[in-house]
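Look over this entry.
=====
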Amino acid sequence: MLKLPTLGAAFAIAALAAAPAQAQVKIRLGGETQVLDHVNSPSSTTWLTDQWRPSVVGMLGYYVLPFLSIDAEIAEAFRVNPGPGQDSRIGTTFRLGATLDPPLLPFYLRAAVPLHLEPGDFFASMRAAVGTTIGPPVAKLYLELGADFPLGGAGHDFFDQQTVYVGAGLQLNL
């Protein structure tokens, strides 16, 4: 005789599926691209279709709480179709931040301080992002939407430019 699972077993399976992985470390490998870049003065806007600026991104994060990680990220950005006199390489950026990943919610919130290291002058920005992860607890696909705002340095004034980006890749929770 075939026995159907009990209601208690069904709740236990649902709880295990919904519980976050108790990872200590996360590793991300992926890419991102600027969708919109707006400069306030003189006013100019560059869209993805005007100039494609993809980045290769790698991140290492450490969970200080089951739902909060401290992250270090490195990105290398390029212009696929540079304008006359522009270099195709935009440069290297290091981002130190934190990710809040509330349990049982399908999204996370991320804040970081991007530091543009080279080429050119050093400058700092502020990044705010929202994203989601899809897949099993150990290896997930992540999707992220965010914005960068300059804080200062290299001729940038506070919030004189707004950049919106989208990113995706693989996140390993170890």
User: Anything to note?
Assistant: The helical segments are 7-18.
